[in-house]
Every structure is written in structure tokens, then in C-alpha cells.
């Protein structure tokens, strides 16, 4: 039986190969934390983590992730206690309507790992706003795959910056 | 010694729904299961703008795997025709679709395919074939084609207004006469419109994403020709509205039709492309502005003429001239609005109707006049501020625009520009913001348990505005308890009817209703107390409801608190009270929230690319209920302003009256990197003439003027004035060449 | 999305065992194909998933070449190229494209083969010769802001949207393929794409049953490199105009110029005329503008994209002058123009 590992639990893949990971989460597993904002990889609301990499759940068929380890928002934070990024989001008011928030957090959690790993971004190579690499501009660029129509961007960047500072201590 | 609960209104309390939202637990419309697993409905849309369906083939779709029904105008059941009755407001009129073979606009629904799974419904939808005998659609292309005078404008403004006498030519020292254009735009809330409807035993249960609940119930009752008593609408969390969810739209009608037809639960989630056609957008505008100033840079003449499209059969028009009528004093002010009926999807409220796009034009024009007159644009604005309403001579409840401009400029460091890097130019821009404030009828109920738990109920919604939190704070403060002790329940049509979210009136109106409900509750409590305690203050702490006599004068000694339990038995609980506000609770004087926007931009000398460096604003909106959520609202509006100035626009395909870019790939809302530093300050001054809680609206204040400050900063940087929004680099290059 | 039969290819069994024809598609990352399948722009009857083709998910090198497997993700390739100063251009181009989420799934081959973003290609209610040959081109006489100015025909003016391909063209990458009969072949990326002509639905030299196995790039000194992408917002948007350039300045003249344009061609554009003009010339604004004119002599614009020639001139001028200035200040420099690492 083909399976993928979802938040630590093996689940059987859906019969209909047309089922995207996102629709699999909603229709088959009733896991609604991951949101559908556009269904075409243009907004990032459906961002989840697969084998340690953040991806858009709407643009991958569930069967393509056979054997993969997938983490959704439901798998971030340990039970009742929130991940430091989730706490920072609340402190910094890094959300308003909350619809893009699951995607922002999955993206943000991955970003923390990516930056620790010194993965490059477009800001690494650009003529930046003040002609020197600014951490905030780098975070902004790395989070540009997550639209927020409520405009919580500045607070999102602040929340991530807070956690980076916390981790550096 | 008693311990008071510290007052929370005005402080930055964390959102009470924060934990739920950051852990993906908040439930939005499409996520409600109801008692029965919903079937999935997929919308089939017209590929022609306006015309009549001449053939419609659903057989193949009906026979496809998993399909339960294909609904068309032939079998949709009883529906009151769209936009009837005419005397209802547009939010309560019929929202019928699939009731006739006529297609009103491109992308209108032609059928709803209902199947077990999304994959089955979506595929079967592609099997529905149809032909439409199309007519050439009407669109607005030229200013002069807008000849219809709207009966009224959003916000209650008259289409035409005029005051004072035109100046003599000899008095005019400087003048400008320009045309500005803003494109069609869309709310683009992150949550696509979605509805889960269940029809069982003649009763309809609806989970949807809507800003105003009470009118949604009425609209469904009228549309489906049902009794309001048989309909329940719930919308506890809304993933963004921005005007596009004030009323119900086609997803709701279709889901209800489907549920009624099958007597099952049916879910309809619009695809992002479908959102552009099945829900409202903002029409484009052509604004002609003439300004003149005289000696000492006094404004002598303000003329604003607006042309916009109006969707046929749907009465909505924006007051783009509202800012021209109220922001600056001028000897002569004239403002007119004309519309043209077009064959487009619904044109309705999008955040800050009128002012969002009116300010882009008007505040650019004011800047142009200032430059023409050879005076700093900030100084020019300050010089021409009104003390009373410039056209009517009436009083403002508060008017701090001058202070916002002056103090704001200092905080922004208006005079000081960052040294540009080679190949870049830096500019500063300013714009004023005036956004009308209203108080709208709203009711709430508050309930108190014997152990002091407070529950607030109202059909009010939280669309990201922070309603759950501010109502919690207001109840907590009024009842002298902690926020942890208060539960606010929203978005259910069985709760007392509120004003809903919209028009920036939600917080002050519903907040005031909650305050009044709590005050009524206290009065109820006191009515069962002996006279000696009539002056006592109710306090709720540690599961106990206490009555505390407040010491008189300087006597620090406070009597020991008495428990309410001494006067009321447990069986009398829970006790409840309701409270309401109406127009009677607000002054007849002019009410506006206001602010000053500042922006710093960098423009590339070669490519004309614009980068935002800083956005700052200083705002006056009465009592700020929650510093954290209010700041977020304003920042969010400023981000919208950046999008309106630089990136957003729906392009039209003329021949078919369709949209060229109906998705997030090509309709460019601002991304994180487009936004740099955004900061703001509030001028705190409670305005109790505006509302019992002293607050005024802020949801639309942040966007008003934000874009214009950026446009003005671009001019300052590279001396190119672009009057056609959004300001993309090709327009800047054209201006340079 | 119509039902399809699913097959898997893991590189072990032969390609000939798979039902490959005009209605079959290889599924790599899926970020383009699944997008188009949901809209029924692509309607494959057969999908061959490459998810298990691990051998193709490697980057290797010898003394002369880098070998980039077809299934290497854009993120992994960007990370690798980031460590190799002589192909910094490739990292820059990759990182300017899409988003982290998309780059984590998008593959080398998938990126090269991605379809256009033309509004009318995406809209199945609009005539499109690329999507449905013979139905017409809706971009003519309508909004065509993002459309091409080079390589267009009466049938089609749609732009190729890839950034990676532009850098690879500049770096003269080679595409390596495998056919069901067992043959392999190598095609220069500069020759790989086809202009639309009368057959806009045929976009590359590949046969319908041919599979890209890897891309190779010769190791050589490319000087200072810069990928500048001009677009309607600062990230997560396709290029209106992009310039990929690498160059050295020796004896005060352009040397070993690598150059390609994005956002302006029906295929990633190799500006042969401009390069011939620039190689060995002095790095001045006048020279650059003349080179641009030489290339633009064949450009056609269609109304809403009339701005592109001037934007290209300006972007090219900015990029080449900044690169030249950097080379003059740092002779022998090899790597990115801006390096904030």
C-alpha cells in the first residue's frame, strides 16, 4: 500500500491520482489547516514542508510524495505548546484574517533552517535597498512566496527577525 | 484591598483568536463539515459577455463518474429574479443565478456540477457544453461616455456638489488641469468566496464567508423565496473581505440551490479565476481635476469630475470626489460624478470606496499645484487646511489633520533624505487622508454566569479586523474583569443583529453596542441590590462577582467587597442583557478619521524601477481600542496603498468584456519584498461625539492617501509625474524621454 | 482535469516500454504541468512520473564540465551554482525566478520546458494557436504587455518565461537527451528552442517521446556576472525584460562576453548581433546603445509592449556599464557583481 508520512503518521495515498496533496489533506484527511488561496502556486497559502523543503501543496499530486515526510501546520508546535515562530506571530500581530497564516508559518519555519544553512536568495546577489545586505530585506525576499492581502508583511518580517535573534542567543 | 483589573482598551492586547489562527485551527467557510459530508459543486462559467444561452448540453456531465446533479436554469428551482425587489438594498436583493437563460456578463454561472469529489466535479464541469448568442458588450472607454448621474454615491454623498464662487482669472497665480486614471482593481481576499449549504426538512444551514450576517439571511430568503426563520447563516472566521464579502455572491446562491435540489450538504468554493467574475471588483476611474491657487498660495478653486463604470442592474457608485470636498478649504469647490452602465461582473465596494482611488488622483493633483506654485507640498497642504467643512461650513467633531501633517513630517524627517546610491534617485512624498466616519445600528447580548464567566454574542464578524479581541476588551473593561474571563461569539445569524464589518464602522458600532449591553447588565445587577450598594462598582475576579464601594474623597480606605452571591442565588444565573446603538448615539457634526501619509522611494535612473524605502503615517481616529490590532489595520491599508500606486490593475479584454489577468500570477498584489519599513503613530484623542466608545474607523484610513504619497515621492525623486496608475517603470521611462 | 493513466520511470527500465506519444507527458516537479492540467490547457491521457528517477537528481563535474541532472531541483542547482563563481550567473537567474516553494519542486528539465505565461494561452475561452493550432492569436490587438518583441510570427507572440534558461543560453549550456530507441543526443541550448513560425505549438527540437537526461555547462572564466530582471513587482513575477551578462574588461575593452535576454523573446534570446558588436569594443554608453540597436533592428512590438525596446536598451546599458566598472576596479574578478553573502 503506497503511503506518505504525514505529521509523523503513515497515511495511504488516495486512489484518484489527480488528487493534489492539498485536496488530499482537505477531502480525505479533514486537515484544513493548510489553505487553498489560489490552487495554482501563485499565493503560497498552501505551503507545507515535504522532506524538509517547503512546497506548495496545490501543485503536487499526492502520489508524487510517496514515501516522503510531510509536515503541515497541524504538525508545527508540540501539541499544546506553540513553536517559537507561532508565539512570535502572536506577539508581533503577524496576521489579521489568519487565512495565509498557516502557509506563512510553514514557510517561516523552513526559512529559519534555510538561513542557518546559509542558502542563498536573490538578495544575496542584488543591488539592495541600502547597498548592503539587510536581514529584513533578505527575509522579505524569502517570504515573497506567501501573499498576505491583509498586509501583515512588516509584522511577519519582525516576527521572523525576533526568532532569528532568539536562536542566535 | 481590592485588586482592579487593569483597563485594556487602548493597550496592545494580543488577539484572542491568535492561537487558533497560528495553529491552523480557525475554521473558515469551506472547512465546515456540517452534519453531513458536503458534496462538491464546481461552477461552469460563461465564455461570452452578454447574451442568451441558445444550447446547453449536460448529459455527458451528468453521466460522469461521481456526479449527483448538474444544475442549470432549467432545473434550479424557484428563484426571485436577480436584484429584485428594486426597493431592497443591494445586499438584501435577490442574488439569483441560474434562473434564466440570459447571461449578464462574462464568467457568469451557466451550470453547477455537483459530485462526490472535487476532481470528479471539476472534470465533469469540462464536459458541459453550451452556446451563447452574444451581443457586443458595453464598456466605458471615454470620459464623456459616462453620462448617467447616480441617484447617490456610496457613503450617502450626492453625485454633484458645489460651493462658493469661481475665482477671477486675475486672482489666479497657479493652476493645473489634468486627467488621472486608476485601473479596475479587486479585493483579492486570500480566502476565495466559499459556501457550504445544507438543506434538510425545509431548513437551510449556511456556512459562508460574509462580512454582514443579517442582510445575508434576508438576501437568501428573498433569493430562494424562503422564510428567514428557516435560514441560519454562520461566518465565524472570514479570510479577508475588503468589501467583496459585504453581501453574498454567486457561490452562496449556487451552494443553496444545489443543497435544496439534492437535499444534501453542498460545498461551492470559487476558483481564484472565478472569484474575479463571480464576486465584485472596483471599476476603473477617469478623474479630471482642475485646481487654482492665488496670493499666498491660498486654494481658490477645486474642480473634480469623475467618470466610472457601473454594472448594469446593480446600483453602486463611488464618491471619488469626497476628498476634494472636505480636505482643503477653497473659495470654490465643485465635484461631479457620472457613470456608464456596462456589461461587466458586479462593481461594488472595494476597500475605501471613493477615497482609495480618489486620493490617488486628488492628492497627486494638490502636489502638482504646489509644485506649479513653487511651494513645498507639505507647507501648501498645511496652509490650506479647513477649520470647518469647506463646503458646508459645519463643524467637525475633531479635526487633527494639521497636527498629523506637522508632527508626522517631523517624525518622518521630511527635510532629510537618505543619500542615494549611484544610479538611484531618492524622493519624499506626502498626502493627506480624510475618511468619513459613521455609526451604524448594532446590537449585542452579554451573559454572565454565576462564577463570573462573561459571554458576548452578536452576529458581528471578524474579517481580520480584530473584532474578537476588541469586543473582549470592551466587555472586560466595562465589567471590570480580565480578558481571559470573556468569550466573544460572532458570526451567527441567531445572535443579535449587528452592523457587520464594512465601511470602517464595525469596531465603533459593535463595540459601542457591547459596551451598552454590559452597562445594561450592570444596571440589571444593581436593580437587585439594596440602595446602599447602588454606587458600588461591579468587579469580576477569580470566579467571583463582587461589589466594591469606591471610597469618597481622599479616604484611602476601601470597604471590603461584597459578593453578589449574597443577593442573587445560582438559579438566577446566567443573567443577560442586550445593548444597541443607533444613529442617535452619534453627533450630527462632520465626522472624519484623518491622517498624513509620508513615503520615501528610490527610483533607478536607467530602468525607472521604483523601490519603496519607507512608509510612515500619523493618524487621528478617536480612541484607539487596541494599539496592536489598530496599527496592523493601518499598516495593512498602507500596503494596499503601495499596491495601488505601483503594482495593481485588472486589464480588460475589450471584445469580450473579460479580464486579461484574473489570477494572482498576473494581478499583482504587493509581495513581501515590495514593502519596506512601515511605521505609524496615532494622535490619541477619544471622540465621544462619534461613538460611545470614543472610537472612529481605521480600516479604510490606512489606504486613503498612502498611494498618493508614493506617487508624490516618485515625482520628487525623478521629476516624472505619472497620472495613470499603477506607476510602472515603463511610464516613468516615457516621462523621462 | 481529465483522468489519466499513470506510469513511472526510474531510469532502470527502457523508455521504449512506456506509451509515449502526443498525448503523454513526463511529470517532473509538476509546478507547470499540474497548473496547466487544472485549467485543461494541458490534457495528457498518460502521465509518466519521474519522481523515482534518482539518478537524474545529481550534479556532478569533471575538469571541463558541470553535469546537471534533469531532475535536480532549481533550489539545489542554485545552491550549487552559488558555490561556483564562474557560473554565478546561473545562481542569480535561478534565485530571481518564482519562489522558494516553487524552486524546491521545479526541475532543470521542467524549467527548460515550461510553457508560456501568455494570458490567452492560459484562458481556454480565448483563441490561441499555441494551445489549439489554427484558432488564431488573441494577443494581437489586445493587451500584450508581457509579450515578445523578438522571434515573433503572425501566429504567436508569446514569451518564454524562464530565467534559468536565459542564464544557460548565456553560458552556452548543452542539453542531453535520450530517445526510446536508445539513442542519445546533445543539442546546444542556443539551438534547442524553436521560434513559433507557423507551428507555435512546437516549442523545442525534442521529439514527443524524447527525454532530457541532463544539461552540461563548460567550465570557463566568465568574469563578473549579473542577472538583472525588470518586472512589475520586486519578486514573484515574470520578467518584462531581463539581461544575463558576464564579462571581462581587458585592455579597456569587453572580453569574453556572455549575454542573453529574457522576457523579450518567443524563446530565451541569444543576441548574436549585439554580442558581435560588443566583443572587443570599449565599454561606453554609445557602444552599448549601438549594440542594442543592432539587435533591436529586427524587433517588432504590438501595442502594449511598445515600451520593451527602450527598457531593454536601458537595462542593457545599466548592466554592462556596472559590470565594466566593476571589472575595471577589480581586474580579473570572477563571480557576482553584487555579493552580499
TrEMBL record, chain A:
Residues 1-76 form the 2Fe-2S ferredoxin-type domain. The keyword Iron-sulfur applies. InterPro entries: 2Fe-2S-bd, 2Fe-2S-bd_dom_sf, 2Fe-2S_ferredoxin-like_sf, 2Fe-2S_ferredoxin-type, 2Fe2S_fd_BS, Aldehyde_Oxdr_Iron-Sulfur, Beta-grasp_dom_sf. Transmembrane segments: none annotated. The keyword Metal-binding applies. Pfam families: Fer2, Fer2_2. Keywords: 2Fe-2S, Iron, Iron-sulfur, Metal-binding, Oxidoreductase, Ubiquinone. It comes from the Bacteria. GO terms for molecular function: 2 iron, 2 sulfur cluster binding; metal ion binding; oxidoreductase activity, acting on the aldehyde or oxo group of donors. This is [2Fe-2S] binding domain protein. It comes from Alteromonas macleodii (Pseudoalteromonas macleodii).
TrEMBL record, chain B:
GO terms for molecular function: iron ion binding; oxidoreductase activity. Residues 151-170 are annotated as: Disordered. It holds the Pfam family MoCoBD_1. SMART domains: Ald_Xan_dh_C (SM01008). Keywords: Molybdenum, Oxidoreductase. The keyword Iron does not apply. Residues 23-136 form the Aldehyde oxidase/xanthine dehydrogenase a/b hammerhead domain. Belongs to the xanthine dehydrogenase family. This is Aldehyde oxidase and xanthine dehydrogenase, a/b hammerhead domain protein.
Amino acid at each position: 500500500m503506497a503511503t506518505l508520512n504525514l505529521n509523523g503518521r503513515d497515511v495511504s495515498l488516495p486512489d484518484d491520482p489527480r488528487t493534489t496533496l492539498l485536496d488530499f489533506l482537505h477531502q480525505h484527511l479533514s486537515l484544513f489547516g493548510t489553505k487553498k488561496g489560489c490552487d495554482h502556486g501563485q499565493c503560497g497559502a498552501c505551503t507545507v514542508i515535504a522532506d524538509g523543503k517547503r512546497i506548495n501543496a496545490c501543485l503536487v499530486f499526492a502520489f508524487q510524495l510517496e514515501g516522503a515526510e510531510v509536515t503541515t501546520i497541524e504538525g508545527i508546535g508540540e501539541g499544546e505548546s506553540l513553536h517559537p515562530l507561532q508565539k512570535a506571530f502572536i506577539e508581533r500581530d503577524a496576521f489579521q484574517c489568519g487565512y495565509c497564516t498557516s502557509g506563512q508559518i510553514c514557510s517561516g519555519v523552513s526559512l529559519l533552517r534555510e538561513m542557518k544553512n546559509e542558502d542563498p536568495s536573490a538578495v544575496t546577489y542584488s543591488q539592495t535597498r541600502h547597498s548592503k545586505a539587510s536581514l529584513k530585506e533578505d527575509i522579505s525576499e524569502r517570504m515573497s512566496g506567501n501573499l498576505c492581502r491583509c498586509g501583515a508583511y512588516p509584522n511577519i518580517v519582525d516576527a521572523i527577525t525576533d526568532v532569528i535573534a532568539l536562536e542566535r542567543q | 484591598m481590592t485588586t482592579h483589573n487593569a483597563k485594556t482598551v487602548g493597550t496592545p492586547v494580543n488577539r484572542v483568536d491568535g492561537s487558533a489562527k497560528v495553529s491552523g485551527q480557525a475554521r473558515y467557510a469551506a472547512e465546515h463539515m456540517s452534519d453531513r459530508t458536503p458534496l462538491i459543486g464546481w461552477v461552469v462559467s460563461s465564455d461570452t459577455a452578454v447574451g442568451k444561452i441558445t444550447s446547453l448540453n449536460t448529459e455527458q456531465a451528468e453521466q460522469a463518474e461521481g456526479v449527483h446533479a448538474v444544475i442549470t436554469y432549467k432545473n434550479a428551482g424557484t428563484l426571485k429574479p436577480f436584484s429584485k425587489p428594486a426597493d431592497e438594498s443591494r445586499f438584501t436583493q435577490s442574488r439569483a443565478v441560474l434562473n434564466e437563460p440570459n447571461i449578464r456578463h462574462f464568467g457568469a454561472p451557466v451550470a453547477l456540477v455537483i459530485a462526490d469529489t472535487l476532481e470528479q466535479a471539476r472534470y465533469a464541469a469540462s464536459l458541459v457544453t453550451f452556446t451563447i448568442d452574444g451581443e457586443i458588450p458595453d464598456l466605458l472607454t471615454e470620459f464623456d461616455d459616462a453620462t448617467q448621474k447616480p441617484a447617490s454615491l456610496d457613503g450617502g454623498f450626492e453625485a454633484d456638489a458645489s460651493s462658493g464662487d469661481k475665482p477671477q482669472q486675475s486672482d489666479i497665480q497657479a493652476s493645473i488641469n489634468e486627467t488621472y486614471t486608476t485601473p479596475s482593481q479587486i479585493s483579492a481576499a486570500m480566502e476565495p468566496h466559499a459556501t457550504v449549504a445544507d438543506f434538510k426538512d425545509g431548513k437551510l444551514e449556511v456556512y459562508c464567508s460574509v462580512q454582514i450576517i443579517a442582510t445575508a439571511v434576508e438576501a437568501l430568503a428573498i433569493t430562494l423565496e424562503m422564510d428567514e426563520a428557516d435560514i441560519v447563516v454562520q461566518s465565524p472566521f472570514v479570510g479577508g473581505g475588503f468589501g467583496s464579502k459585504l453581501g453574498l455572491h454567486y457561490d452562496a446562491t449556487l451552494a443553496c440551490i444545489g443543497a435544496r435540489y439534492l437535499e444534501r450538504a453542498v460545498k461551492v468554493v470559487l476558483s481564484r479565476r472565478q472569484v474575479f467574475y463571480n464576486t465584485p471588483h472596483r471599476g476603473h476611474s477617469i478623474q479630471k481635476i482642475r485646481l487654482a491657487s492665488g496670493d499666498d498660495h491660498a486654494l481658490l478653486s477645486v474642480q473634480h469630475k469623475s467618470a466610472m463604470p457601473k454594472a448594469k442592474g446593480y446600483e453602486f457608485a463611488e464618491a471619488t470626489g469626497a476628498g476634494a470636498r472636505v480636505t482643503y478649504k477653497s473659495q470654490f469647490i465643485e465635484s461631479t460624478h457620472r457613470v456608464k452602465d456596462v456589461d461587466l461582473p458586479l462593481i461594488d465596494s472595494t476597500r475605501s470606496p471613493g477615497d482609495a482611488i480618489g486620493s490617488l488622483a486628488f492628492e497627486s493633483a494638490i502636489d502638482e499645484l504646489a509644485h506649479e506654485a513653487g511651494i513645498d507640498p507639505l507647507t501648501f497642504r498645511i496652509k490650506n487646511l479647513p477649520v470647518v467643512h469647506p463646503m458646508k461650513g459645519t463643524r467637525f467633531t475633531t479635526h487633527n489633520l494639521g497636527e498629523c501633517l506637522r508632527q508626522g513630517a517631523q517624525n518622518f524627517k521630511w527635510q532629510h533624505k537618505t543619500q542615494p546610491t549611484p544610479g538611484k534617485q531618492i524622493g519624499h512624498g506626502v498626502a493627506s487622508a480624510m475618511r468619513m466616519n459613521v455609526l451604524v445600528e448594532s446590537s449585542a447580548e452579554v451573559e454572565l454566569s454565576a462564577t463570573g464567566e462573561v459571554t458576548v454574542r452578536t452576529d458581528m464578524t471578524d474579517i481580520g479586523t480584530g473584532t474578537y479581541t476588541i469586543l473582549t476588551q470592551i466587555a472586560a473593561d466595562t465589567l471590570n474583569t480580565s480578558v481571559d474571563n470573556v468569550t466573544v461569539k460572532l458570526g451567527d445569524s441567531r445572535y443579535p443583529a449587528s452592523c457587520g464589518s464594512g465601511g470602517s464602522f464595525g469596531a465603533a458600532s459593535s463595540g459601542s453596542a457591547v459596551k451598552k449591553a454590559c452597562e445594561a447588565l450592570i444596571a440589571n445587577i444593581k436593580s437587585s441590590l439594596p440602595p446602599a450598594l447602588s454606587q458600588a462598582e461591579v468587579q469580576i475576579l477569580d470566579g467571583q462577582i463582587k461589589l466594591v464601594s469606591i471610597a469618597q474623597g481622599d479616604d484611602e480606605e476601601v470597604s471590603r467587597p461584597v459578593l453578589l452571591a449574597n443577593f442573587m442565588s445560582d438559579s438566577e444565573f446566567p443573567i443577560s442583557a442586550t445593548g444597541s446603538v443607533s444613529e442617535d448615539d452619534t453627533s450630527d457634526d462632520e465626522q472624519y478619521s484623518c491622517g498624513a501619509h509620508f513615503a520615501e522611494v528610490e527610483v533607478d535612473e536607467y530602468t525607472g524601477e521604483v523601490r519603496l524605502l519607507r512608509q510612515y503615517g500619523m493618524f487621528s481616529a478617536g480612541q484607539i481600542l487596541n494599539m496592536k490590532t489598530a496599527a496592523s489595520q493601518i499598516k495593512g491599508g498602507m500596503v494596499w496603498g503601495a499596491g495601488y500606486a505601483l503594482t495593481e490593475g485588472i486589464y480588460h479584454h475589450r471584445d469580450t468584456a473579460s479580464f486579461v489577468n484574473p489570477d494572482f500570477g498576473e494581478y499583482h498584489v504587493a509581495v513581501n519584498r515590495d514593502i519596506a519599513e512601515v511605521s505609524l503613530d496615532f494622535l490619541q484623542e477619544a471622540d465621544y461625539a462619534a461613538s460611545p466608545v470614543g472610537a472612529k474607523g481605521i480600516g479604510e484610513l490606512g489606504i486613503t492617501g498612502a498611494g498618493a504619497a508614493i506617487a508624490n515621492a516618485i515625482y520628487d525623486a525623478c521629476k516624472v509625474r505619472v497620472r495613470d496608475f499603477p506607476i510602472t517603470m515603463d511610464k516613468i521611462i516615457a516621462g523621462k524621454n | 482535469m481529465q483522468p489519466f493513466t499513470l506510469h513511472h520511470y526510474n531510469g532502470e527500465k527502457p523508455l521504449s516500454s512506456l506509451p509515449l506519444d502526443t498525448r503523454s507527458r513526463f511529470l517532473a516537479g509538476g509546478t507547470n504541468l499540474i497548473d496547466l492540467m487544472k485549467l485543461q490547457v494541458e490534457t495528457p491521457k498518460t502521465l509518466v512520473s519521474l519522481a523515482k528517477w534518482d539518478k537524474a537528481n545529481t550534479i556532478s563535474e569533471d575538469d571541463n564540465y558541470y553535469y546537471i541532472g534533469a531532475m535536480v531541483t532549481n533550489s539545489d542547482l542554485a545552491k550549487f551554482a552559488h558555490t561556483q563563481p564562474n557560473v554565478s550567473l546561473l545562481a542569480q537567474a535561478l534565485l530571481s525566478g518564482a519562489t522558494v516553494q516553487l524552486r524546491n519542486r521545479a526541475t532543470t528539465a521542467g524549467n527548460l520546458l515550461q510553457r508560456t505565461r501568455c494570458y490567452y494561452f492560459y484562458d481556454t475561452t480565448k483563441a490561441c494557436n499555441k494551445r489549439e493550432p489554427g484558432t488564431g492569436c488573441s494577443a494581437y490587438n489586445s493587451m500584450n504587455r508581457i509579450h515578445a518583441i523578438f522571434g515573433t510570427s503572425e501566429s504567436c507572440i508569446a514569451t518564454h518565461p524562464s530565467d534559468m534558461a536565459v542564464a544557460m543560453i548565456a553560458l552556452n549550456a548543452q542539453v542531453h537527451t535520450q530517445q526510446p530507441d536508445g539513442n542519445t543526443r546533445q543539442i546546444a541550448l542556443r539551438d534547442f528552442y524553436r521560434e513559433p513560425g507557423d507551428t507555435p505549438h512546437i516549442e523545442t527540437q525534442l521529439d514527443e517521446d524524447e527525454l532530457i537526461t541532463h544539461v552540461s555547462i563548460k567550465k570557463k572564466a566568465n568574469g563578473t556576472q549579473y542577472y538583472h530582471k525588470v518586472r512589475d513587482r520586486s519578486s514573484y513575477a515574470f520578467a518584462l525584460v531581463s539581461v544575463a551578462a558576464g564579462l571581462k574588461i581587458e585592455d579597456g575593452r569587453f572580453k569574453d562576453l556572455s549575454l542573453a535576454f529574457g522576457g523579450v523573446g518567443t524563446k530565451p534570446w541569444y543576441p548574436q548581433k549585439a554580442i558581435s558588436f560588443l566583443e572587443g569594443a570599449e565599454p561606453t554608453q554609445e557602444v552599448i546603445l549601438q549594440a542594442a540597436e543592432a539587435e533591436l533592428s529586427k524587433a517588432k512590438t504590438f501595442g502594449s509592449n511598445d515600451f520593451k525596446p527602450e527598457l531593454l536598451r536601458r537595462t542593457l546599458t545599466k548592466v554592462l556599464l556596472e559590470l565594466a566598472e566593476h571589472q575595471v576596479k577589480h581586474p580579473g574578478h570572477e563571480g557576482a557583481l553584487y555579493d552580499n553573502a
